[in-house]
Amino acid sequence: QSQLVESGGGLVQSGGSLRLSCAASGFTLDYYTVGWFRQAPGKEREGVSCIHGSGKTTNYADSVKGRFTISRDNAKNVVYLQMSSLKPDDTAVYYCAAGFYYCSDFPSTVGVDYWGKGTLVTVSS
Questions:
Q1: I need a labelling partner for 30 at 20 to 30 A (CA). Which of 23, 24, 38, 56 fits?
Q2: What's the pLDDT tens digit per position in 18-33?
Q3: Low-confidence ranges of the chain (pLDDT < 70)
């Protein structure tokens, strides 16, 4: 069964760091664009970051630029989201999504083929 599984979420204090992982099973991530999205309680889903299959093209929401870094290890079939200088406003369930789309179109979800079930990130003040 093809699926994406997120991990690495948890509780962290404001100013702290976490690294999220998005692991694919049942298919190879190499050629897929992968995006990270988040949804806070009572809010709409928000696009956070995106990376092309080559790893050479990335995109970030203004709210996380300079604090978050997306990367991928195609040999391990994993995409990462390194989050630093975390703020309480970053509290949300974080999802990864893989598909054939351009990061220039991010955060559009047109072309997404796979969604993970999410991992909860809670940032305390």
A1: 38
A2: 999 999 999 999 999 9
A3: none
